[in-house]
Amino acid sequence: MRIFNKKTFLNWRGYLAAIGAVALATWLKYLAQPNIIPADVPILYLLAIVPTAIYFGLGPSILVCILSLLAFDFFFIPPLYTIGPRNVDAVPILAIFFWLGCYSAF
Asked: What b-and-e string marks burial along 91-104, b requiring 16 or more CB atoms within 10 Å of the CB?
């Protein structure tokens, strides 16, 4: 388990990289959908969370988790372009995704 480091937590480059990682993962998921990766599988966002956690620490990785959850919900969970799942089938996917992302951030 990592010890809390204020310098790493407040590093602005990590937060900037977090936003870029979510944007890149969203773009790649959009390109890969639905032929390569189904719409309800957020695996590319986990590939954004793990490197951010390794290289930039806890703060940026939690930001990636939150932004990834919002981007995945907004762009890929029907109804599209709305925040908040209207479909009950999407709630367990979003909850497990958020838990796994935060767990891997630690």
From this structure: eebbeebbeebbee
**Category of 77 on φ-ψ map: left (φ > 0), alpha (ψ -120 to 50) or beta:** beta
Dist. CA 52–CA 38, nearest whole Å: 24
Q: What digits encode the pLDDT tens for the residues 30-83?
A: 888 877 877 778 888 888 888 888 888 888 888 998 999 899 889 888 888 888
What phi and psi, each to the nearest 5 degrees, are found at residue 37?
Answer: -120, 125
The per-residue pLDDT for 5 is 62
